Amino acid sequence: MIPFTKLHGIGNDYIYINAIKHSVKNPKKLAIAMSNRNFGVGSDGLILILPSDKADFTMRMFNADGSEAEMCGNGIRGFAKYVYDHNLTKKTTIAIETLAGIKQVRCTLKNGKVHTVTVDMGEPILLRDKIPMIGNPGTVIEEDLHVDGVKFSITAVSMGNPHVVIYVEDVKNFPVEKYGPMIENHELFPKRTNVEFVQIVTGKEVIQRTWERGSGETLACGTGASAVTVAGVLTEKTDRRLKVHLKGGNLAIEWNNKDNHVYLAGPAEEVFEGVWP
After folding, report:
1. Which residue range(s) make up the domain with 163?
2. Is the peptide bond before 132 cis (omega within 30 degrees of 0)?
3. Closest listed residue to residue 184, CA positions, set 170, 194, 171
4. Is residue 62 located within the same domain as residue 165?
5. 249 and 132 in a common domain
6. To the nearest whole percent, how much of the chain has pLDDT over 70?
7. Which residues on neighbouring strands pair with residue 268, listed in sequence order?
């Protein structure tokens, strides 16, 4: 029997397990079973809370298909809320080790519980081979990508995990479910990629839909919103401070020009607790 807690960051929902206390032998298999929305708990993935000898905690995150991801902007906010609200720490500034490096998060409290979390997402990775993406060395800014007879203009950014940003005129009616998986699994991306379809409202505001690698379309994606902010600056379409509207809610993102770090701020909410047999 494994106790779990479900949390979400503007609709991007994850199942959290205190793996410091409860051993998880096969997290990939467990992620697939628990994430199933018909036969399991239902989520975009599974997140394990583990000890760290480099930071306060380690976060391991598994997508709904069992694949392990490097980082998750919404997931790490839920992680911070879990460890504080469940008395694993009383720090409001927490260092969390991920496959994308150590991330610093700052919690804002309301009635003694974590209400919102600001995440230092670190510096964006812009070089093609580091994203990773096959092709000539350099950056990928408004580069043509042909998929199923359609030409897309793509900008590629890694926020510890790979993202492709594509601007469209009407994102609400765009066939994300058709082109998302085609681009995710395109041969140019050896580790697959997340895909952001973005409609510009103003220079300070965009609407985003995300096809997440390993999970399909999700209600929100924090690393994706961060990548969209970076891509907007690189393509000179939007400002360094951006309000990103996602299906599940809004995120505030800044690409700071002093330290080159991306900062993400948004809520985290607990949904329920349970026990997995």
Report:
1. 128-260
2. yes
3. 194
4. no
5. yes
6. 100
7. none
What digits encode the pLDDT tens for the residues 103-136? 999 999 999 999 999 999 999 999 999 999 999 9
What's the pLDDT score for residue 54? 97
Looking at the 3D structure of the chain, how many domains does it have? 2
* Phi, psi (degrees; rounded to nearest 5) at 61: -125, 130
Amino acid found at 177: E
- 277 Cβ contact list (under 8 Å, min separation 6): 1
Q: What angle do CA 223, 104, 253 make, to 5 degrees?
A: 40
- Shared domain for 142 and 253, answered yes or no, is yes
Tell me the whole-structure pTM to 2 decimals: 0.90
User: Which is the catalytic residue, given 61, 72, 219, 244?
Assistant: 72
Cα atoms in the Cβ-side hemisphere of radius 13 Å centred on 254 = 9
Catalytic annotation present for 107: no
**Annotated catalytic residue, options 80, 171, 221, 227:** 221
Which residue in 159, 102, 166, 154 sits closest to 126, CA to CA? 159
Residues of the chain with pLDDT under 50: none
Do the strands 269-276 and 241-246 form a parallel or antiparallel pair, or are they unpaired?
A: unpaired
**pLDDT for the residue 210:** 97
CA–CA distance, 232 with 212 (Å, rounded to integer): 19
